[in-house]
Amino acid sequence: MPVKYRLKGENFTIVSGPDAGKKFMRGRVYEQVPDGYQERFEKIPETDKPPAPAVPRMPKKKPVAPVPGPGTLDAGNKLSAISPQLSEKKLTNEE
Questions:
Q1: What is the DSSP string of 28-73?
Q2: CA dist., res. 42 & res. 7, Å (int)
Q3: What angle do CA 42, 43, 47 make, to 5 degrees?
Q4: φ and ψ at 73, to 5 degrees?
Protein backbone atom coordinates (compact mmCIF):
# COMPACT_ATOMS: atom_id res chain seq x y z
CA MET A 1 0.00 0.00 0.00
CA PRO A 2 1.52 3.37 -0.98
CA VAL A 3 2.25 6.00 1.65
CA LYS A 4 -0.18 8.93 1.71
CA TYR A 5 0.36 12.49 2.87
CA ARG A 6 -1.78 15.29 4.28
CA LEU A 7 -0.99 19.02 4.29
CA LYS A 8 -0.16 20.32 7.80
CA GLY A 9 -0.50 24.07 7.30
CA GLU A 10 -2.28 26.50 5.03
CA ASN A 11 -3.19 25.93 1.38
CA PHE A 12 -0.53 26.86 -1.17
CA THR A 13 0.21 26.89 -4.90
CA ILE A 14 3.60 26.10 -6.40
CA VAL A 15 4.74 28.97 -8.63
CA SER A 16 7.92 27.63 -10.22
CA GLY A 17 9.62 24.39 -11.20
CA PRO A 18 8.19 21.20 -12.67
CA ASP A 19 5.12 21.32 -10.37
CA ALA A 20 4.28 24.98 -11.14
CA GLY A 21 0.56 25.70 -10.91
CA LYS A 22 -0.30 22.74 -8.69
CA LYS A 23 -2.51 23.62 -5.73
CA PHE A 24 -2.31 21.80 -2.43
CA MET A 25 -5.25 22.15 -0.09
CA ARG A 26 -5.68 21.29 3.56
CA GLY A 27 -7.87 18.26 4.23
CA ARG A 28 -7.01 16.45 1.01
CA VAL A 29 -4.85 13.34 0.74
CA TYR A 30 -1.86 13.20 -1.63
CA GLU A 31 0.17 10.22 -2.79
CA GLN A 32 3.21 12.32 -3.76
CA VAL A 33 4.84 15.33 -2.18
CA PRO A 34 6.61 17.87 -4.40
CA ASP A 35 10.39 18.15 -3.94
CA GLY A 36 11.36 20.81 -1.42
CA TYR A 37 7.96 20.85 0.31
CA GLN A 38 8.22 17.70 2.46
CA GLU A 39 8.14 19.72 5.72
CA ARG A 40 4.64 20.99 4.89
CA PHE A 41 3.15 17.48 4.82
CA GLU A 42 2.63 14.69 7.33
CA LYS A 43 2.39 10.97 6.69
CA ILE A 44 -1.01 9.39 7.20
CA PRO A 45 -0.83 6.18 9.22
CA GLU A 46 -1.86 3.10 7.27
CA THR A 47 -4.88 1.16 8.42
CA ASP A 48 -6.11 -2.27 7.37
CA LYS A 49 -9.76 -1.33 7.22
CA PRO A 50 -11.18 1.04 4.59
CA PRO A 51 -12.65 4.36 5.74
CA ALA A 52 -16.34 4.36 6.62
CA PRO A 53 -18.63 5.74 3.94
CA ALA A 54 -19.80 9.29 4.46
CA VAL A 55 -23.33 9.69 5.72
CA PRO A 56 -25.08 12.76 4.35
CA ARG A 57 -26.63 15.04 6.93
CA MET A 58 -30.17 16.15 6.35
CA PRO A 59 -31.13 19.54 7.73
CA LYS A 60 -33.73 19.40 10.45
CA LYS A 61 -37.00 20.95 9.36
CA LYS A 62 -39.06 22.93 11.79
CA PRO A 63 -42.75 22.06 11.88
CA VAL A 64 -44.89 24.66 10.19
CA ALA A 65 -48.39 25.42 11.41
CA PRO A 66 -51.01 25.37 8.66
CA VAL A 67 -52.17 28.81 7.60
CA PRO A 68 -55.89 29.09 6.94
CA GLY A 69 -56.65 30.34 3.49
CA PRO A 70 -59.80 31.75 1.88
CA GLY A 71 -62.81 29.53 2.22
CA THR A 72 -61.59 27.57 5.26
CA LEU A 73 -63.65 26.49 8.23
CA ASP A 74 -63.37 28.50 11.45
CA ALA A 75 -63.63 27.14 15.02
CA GLY A 76 -67.42 26.80 14.76
CA ASN A 77 -67.10 24.78 11.54
CA LYS A 78 -68.63 27.64 9.58
CA LEU A 79 -67.25 28.85 6.30
CA SER A 80 -65.30 32.02 7.05
CA ALA A 81 -63.12 34.41 5.15
CA ILE A 82 -65.64 34.82 2.35
CA SER A 83 -64.42 38.36 2.13
CA PRO A 84 -61.94 40.20 4.33
CA GLN A 85 -64.51 42.88 5.21
CA LEU A 86 -67.04 40.37 6.55
CA SER A 87 -64.40 38.60 8.64
CA GLU A 88 -63.22 41.87 10.22
CA LYS A 89 -66.79 42.91 11.11
CA LYS A 90 -67.51 39.51 12.60
CA LEU A 91 -64.35 39.61 14.75
CA THR A 92 -64.82 43.16 16.03
CA ASN A 93 -68.66 43.02 16.32
CA GLU A 94 -69.01 46.16 14.24
CA GLU A 95 -71.90 46.68 11.89
A1: -EES---TT-GGGEEEEPP-SSPPPPP-PPPPPPPP-PPPP-TT-B
A2: 6
A3: 145
A4: -85, 140
Q: Return per-residue pLDDT of the chain as tens, 95 residues.
A: 678 999 998 999 999 888 899 999 998 999 889 888 999 999 988 776 776 787 887 777 877 777 666 655 555 555 554 555 554 555 555 55
Residue 58: count of CB within 10 angstroms of its CB: 6
- Delimit the domains of the chain by residue range: 4-44
Predicted TM-score (pTM) above 0.70 = no
